[in-house]
Amino acid sequence: MNVTPPGELVTELQPEIREKIDAILVENLGKPGATMLVLTLVQETVGYISPPMQSYLAEQLDVPLSHLYGVLTFYSSFRTSPIGRHKVSVCLGTACYVRNGPTLLEKLKQVLGVEVNETTADNRFTLEICRCVGACSQAPVVMIDDDIAGRVDPSKIGRILRKYK
Ligand code: FES
User: Fold this and answer.
1) Band of the pLDDT at 118, cuts 50, 70, 90?
2) Do 60 and 27 meet the contact criterion of CB atoms below 8 Å apart?
3) Residue 77 pLDDT > 90, yes or no?
4) Which residue, 127, 152, 140, is CA-closest to 94?
5) Which of 3, 21, 123, 148 has the most CB atoms in a 10 Å sphere around its CB?
6) pLDDT for position 12
7) What pTM was estimated for this model as a whole?
8) Which DSSP letter does residue 149 get?
9) How many CA atoms, within 13 angstroms, populate the side-chain half-sphere of residue 145?
10) Beta-carbon contacts of residue 40 (< 8 Å; ≥ 6 apart)
C-alpha cells in the first residue's frame, strides 16, 4: 500500500524520523492489526511517538487521532516523548508509598514541570514510576539513572537533581 504525500503536519516531523516511519508504513499498512503493529515498530525504531508523529500516523493509518492516542496511553510501553539524559524513577512500592512516595512524586512533577513518562523541555530528565527497588528501609526512594537516593525529603529533591547535568 502507498503512503500518501506529506501534508502540513508532516513538515513538523524531522526528515529522518519521517523516513523511518514511512518504511514501517509501507511494510505494514493494510495488515490485520496494522495500528498496533505500526505503533509498536515505530516505538522500537524511533524510541517514542510524539504528537506530530501521532497525527501523521493517524492520517496514514486512517484511524481517528483519539483512537490512536487511546492506544498509546493505555499501554505503558509506549512513550510520547524522547528519553532524557537522566531517568528519574520514583518508587511507589508499598514501603515507599506509605512513607511519602506520592508526595515525592508530586514534588518532582512540580520541580521538573512534567507528568510521569514525560521528558523535560531541555531533554535533561525523564520522570518515571518504578516498583520496589530493594531499598525499602530507606523509603521513600528515588532512582536517578543507577543511583539510589533514600529517605528523600520532597522539599530537598531540587538539590539532589542539581548534580545531574
Ligand atoms: S518499596 Fe520502594 S524500595 Fe521497596
Assistant:
1) confident
2) no
3) no
4) 140
5) 21
6) 72
7) 0.68
8) E
9) 11
10) none
Predicted pLDDT at 82: 86
Pocket test for ligand 1, best of 141, 142, 152 (most atoms within 8 A of CB): 141
How large is the average pLDDT for residues 12-36?
92
Pull the grid cell for residue 112: 521538573
Q: CB of 9 closer than 6 A to ligand 1?
A: no
Tell me, in angstroms, the distance from the centre of ligand 1 to residue 12's CA.
41
Amino acid at 66: S
Cα 22 to Cα 14, 31, 32, 57, 82, distances in angstroms: 12, 15, 18, 9, 19
pLDDT of residue 13: 83
Residue among 90, 128, 132 to mutate when testing ligand 1 (max atoms within 8 A of CB): 132
- In the CATH hierarchy, which top-level class contains the domain 86-161? alpha beta
Q: Where are the alpha helices (DSSP H) in the chain?
A: 15-28, 34-46, 51-61, 65-74, 94-98, 101-112, 157-161
Read off the C-alpha cell for 5.
Answer: 504525500
The average confidence (pLDDT) of the chain is 90
Report the C-alpha gap between 39 and 25 in whole angstroms. Answer: 10
